[in-house]
Amino acid sequence: MEKNELRNPAVSSSLEEMKLGVWRVLVEREIRTSLGFEMHWKKITAMLPTIQKFVTDVYMIGPGLLTLIILSKLWSGIEDVLVLHLANQVLSIIEVGLKEGKPDTAAILNAVVARFLVVAISAAVQWWRERATPIMENRCTHHYEDFLFSTNLRTDLPTVHDNNADNSLTARAVWDNFTALLDVAETAIQTVGLMAYILQLAISSRHGPVFVLLCIGKPLLRVIFRRSLWERAHIVEAADPNYLRLRALKELEDNKYRQDIISGNISDYILTEYDRAREELGDTDISYPAQLYDIKRSLNLTVIMEIAGDLTMLYYAGNAVFNPTKFTLTSIAMLQHSESILRRTFYGGVKKIGELRQGMIFMKRIYGVADITNVVKDGTLEYPGTQQSEMDGMSIDLRDVSFSYPGSKSNVKALDDVSFSIKSGQLVVLVGANGSGKSTLVKLLARLYDVTSGQVLVNGQDIRAYKIEDLRAATASLTQDHKLYPLSLSENIGLGHPKQFSDENIILDAAQKGGANGFVSKLKQGFSTVLDPKTDQWSMHVETTGKTPLAKEAQKLKGIVDISGGERQRVVASRTFMRFKSGTVKLVIADEGSSALDPEGEWELFKNLREERQGKTMVFVTHRFGHLTKYADLILCMKDGRLVESGSHEELMKIPDGEYLKLYDMQAKAFSENAA
Ligand SMILES: Nc1ncnc2c1ncn2[C@@H]1O[C@H](COP(=O)(O)OP(=O)(O)OP(=O)(O)O)[C@@H](O)[C@H]1O
Predict the structure, then answer these.
(1) 414 C-alpha to ligand 1 centroid (Å)
(2) How far is Cα 203 from Cα 314, in angstroms, rounded to an integer?
(3) DSSP β-bridge partners for residue 475
(4) Rg over CA atoms, the chain
(5) Which UniProt keywords apply (predicted)?
(6) Which pLDDT tens digit goes with each residue over 30-39?
(7) By CB neighbour count within 10 A (0-12 exposed, 13-18 middle, 19+ buried), where does 357 fall?
C-alpha cells in the first residue's frame, strides 16, 4: 500500500489521500461508530427520498409492465430457497430409502416433479423478463432523454462555464440504476430467505444458530473491514505525468491530426516520445483505482478473512471427531450447498448496495438538473415595446462596463471599464489586436453574458430588464463560432427564421445573399445534402477487394460529402440573411463572419449586409478593415480589454502613435511592400 505518498498539506485532515498506480485518490475519512453500522444506516436512510421519487417516476412510465417485472424479480428472490428445499427433500428421502433398503418411490417422484416444476416456472419467468425488460428500458431511457435534452438545450453559456450544468449525464444509465435497485431488493429477499432456511435446517439437524453465524462470518468481516472504493465518497484523478503524456500522444492517432502529422513530418518524434513515456511509466499500475484499492488490503486481514471463510469446515471436522453421530450425509451436503449459495448472494448484495449508492447519487444529479437556473435572468420588459417600435435600429450605451468570464483563471479582466454609445442605425466597426476584448463585447451586446460591473443600456433601459426572447428576436449574429448543424443544408439556412422554413424561395434568396447558392447547387443532393450526418454504419467480414456485391454496397455507404471552410461560412451567413426575413431584427452583429471567405466573397457579403441595413444598427468585428471602415459611422478600437480610441476613420488616423493608426499602417504597409 502506497498510502499518503502524495500527502499534500493543503488537503483537509478529514480526507485520506493515496496514490494507487497512476491515480491520485482522495477519500472521505469515515467516523466509525458502532463498527460503522450507524454510518451505513445514515447513508441508507439519506437515499430513501431519492429512491422513492425515482421508483414513483419509473412506475408512472409503465405501471403494468413494471409491476410484472417486479413480481418476476420477487420470484427470483425466493427461487433459490425453493430449489434448495426441494433438493433437500429429494436427498433426505433417498438417504432414508438407502438406509432402510426400501425407497419411497411416490415421495421421491413427488419431490422430483415439484423441483422440475419450480425450474420450469423459473425458466418461463426468465424468458418473459428478457422480452419485457428491453421494452421498459426503452421507455425509461426515452423519458429521461427527453427530460435531459430539454434542460440542456435551455442552459445558457455562463451556467455551462460555471460548471453548474451537468451534461455528462446520460439517460441510458437510468435503467441500469433502476435495475440495481431491483437487484438489491431481490438479493435482500434471497438473503433473508436463505438465512431463514439455513437456520431452520441447522436447528432441525441439531446444529443451532451458531452454524448460521459461522456461515456469514467471512462476508460480515468483509463488510466491516474491507469496504470497496465504490462504497466510499471519493475523487480520482490521473496524476502520473508519464501516463498523461502517453494519453496525449496516443490521442494524436486520431484522423483529425493526420494531415498535420504527415505534413509536419513529426511521426518519428511522437513515436520516440511515446516510447520514452512508456519506459518511464514502467510497471506503474494503470488498472482501475477501485481494483487497486481492493488489492491494497493488508496481509493480516487477508489471512483472517480466509480463515473466517473456513470456519464451517472446522465445525464439521470438530463434530466429526467429537460428536460423529450428529450429522447425516444429507444435512452436511445441504448445509454446505446452502452456505455457498448464501455467501455468494451476500457478497453480491454488498456489491449491489455499493452500486445502488452510486446509482442514487447519479439520480440525485439527474433530478438536480431540473433545479439548475440559468445565470442570465430573464427580464419582463417587452422589446422594442410600443414606444420604441418606430426605431429601425437598436441604440446601445455601455457605462463603465467590466467583465470577467465565469470561472476564468486569468488575473486580468476580459473587459475593463468600457464606455461608449451607439446610436440607432449606426454602422460600427470594432478593431483591435487578438485578445483585446472585441468578441467579448459583442457577446455582452447579444446578452449571452451579463456584465460583471457597469451597465449595458438598450434604448435607454438596462439590457437585463428586457425579455430575453425579445432581445434574441431583435438580434442577428454572424460569427466565426457559429457551427453547421448535422441537418440538411436547407434546414441549416432555414433555421435562421424557422417560421418561413417551408418556403423554398425564401431559403433560395437567403442562400443567394449569403453566397451559398453557387456551391450548393453543384452538390448531388443540393439543399437536401446533410453534412456530418449522424448515422451508425459498420461492416464485418466484407471482402476488402471491393469485388463482391456486399463490398460494393459497403463502398457506397462510405461516400462522404464535405465542403470547404469558406463554404461552411457562406451557409452560416445565409442563415443570418434568413433571420432578416423575420422583420424583427434591429441589431446585426458580425464577428469575423467573413474570415474564411475569399476577397470577392467577403466584398459581396458586406455589400449584401449593407443592403439589408434599412436603419438597423450594425456592429462588425474585423481584422481586415479595408472593406468596412469607409462606411463606418463609428470605429471603436480596443486594446487589452479597454476601449483606447473611438471616432471616424479620419479622426482616428489623426491620433499620433494611436493604436488604430498602428494597426492600419501595418495592413497598408503589407500592400505597399508587396507592390514594391
Ligand atoms: N470563454 C472564455 N473564458 C475565459 N476567458 C476568455 C474566454 N473567451 C475569451 N477569453 C479571454 O478574454 C479576453 C478577450 O478575448 P476576446 O475573445 O474578446 O478577444 P478578441 O479581441 O475577440 O480576440 P481575437 O481577435 O483573437 O478574436 C482574452 O484575454 C481571452 O483569453
Answers:
(1) 7
(2) 19
(3) 587
(4) 36
(5) ATP-binding, Nucleotide-binding
(6) 655 554 556 6
(7) buried
Could you tell me the distance, in angstroms and rounded to a whole number, from the CA of residue 641 to the centre of ligand 1? 9
Question: According to DSSP H, which parts of 62-104 are helical?
Answer: 63-100
ipTM above 0.85, yes or no: yes
Partner residues linked to 255 by β-bridges: none
Q: What average pLDDT does the segment 399-420 reach?
A: 91
**Can you give the pTM of this predicted structure?**
0.73
CA-based angle 596:601:602, to the nearest 5? 70
CA-to-CA distance for 134 and 115, rounded, in angstroms?
A: 29
Taking a C-beta distance cutoff of 8 angstroms, is the pair 488, 496 a contact? no
Ligand 1 atom 19 nearest Cα: 435
Contact 519, 474 (CB under 8 A): no
In this predicted model, what pLDDT tens digit does every residue of 590-640 receive, in sequence order? 998 778 888 888 888 988 988 888 889 999 998 877 777 888 999 999 999
CA dihedral 444→450→454→459, nearest 10 degrees, is 60
Instruction: Tell me the CA–centroid distance for residue 404 and ligand 1, in Å.
Output: 10
Residue of 439, 481, 638 to mutate, ligand 1, most atoms within 8 A of C-beta: 439
Ligand 1, pocket residues at CB < 6 Å: 405, 408, 414, 432, 434-440
Question: Is 590 within 8 Å of 618 (Cβ atoms)?
Answer: yes
